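quick one before i forget lol
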Amino acid sequence: MVKTKLQTRNDIEKLVRAFYSKVQKDDILGPFFNYAIKSDEEWEKHYELLTAFWELNLMDKKGFDGNPAKAHHGIDKAFKSAITTAHFDQWVSLWHKTIDQMFEGELAEKAKMRAQNMAKGMYKKILDQRPGGFILPGDASGIKFG
C-alpha cells in the first residue's frame, strides 16, 4: 500500500474505518467494542462520530459532539471493571500500526502522539470512576500506553 500524507477529513475517515475494522476482530479489544456497537448501522454512526472526534483533535475543526469518558466508563462498568492498561496498550499499538500502514507526515505523527496521551488520560478517568477511586490494579510497573 502506498502511503500518503494524512491531511483531509476523508483521510481521517479512511483511517478510522481501517482501524476499527481491526478492532472489531481483535481478541483483546473486540469483545468490548462489539458489545457496545452491535449492528452495521451503529458502526456507521460510530465511524462518523470518531471521524469528527479526530478531525477536531488533528485539525481543530468543530463538529464532534460526544462524551468519550462517559462511554468508556459505561463499558468498564458493564464489564465489571475489566479494562486494564493492556487494553489501552493494544488500542495504541493498533492505532499506530494502522497509521504507519496508510499515512505519513505531520498529522500522522500528531495522531499517534495524541492517541498515547488520550489513552493515559482515559484510563485515569476510568479508574477515577471505579469504586475506591484512582487505584492502579496489581503491579503498575508495566504501564506503557504505546
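fyi The chain has one domain: 4-130.
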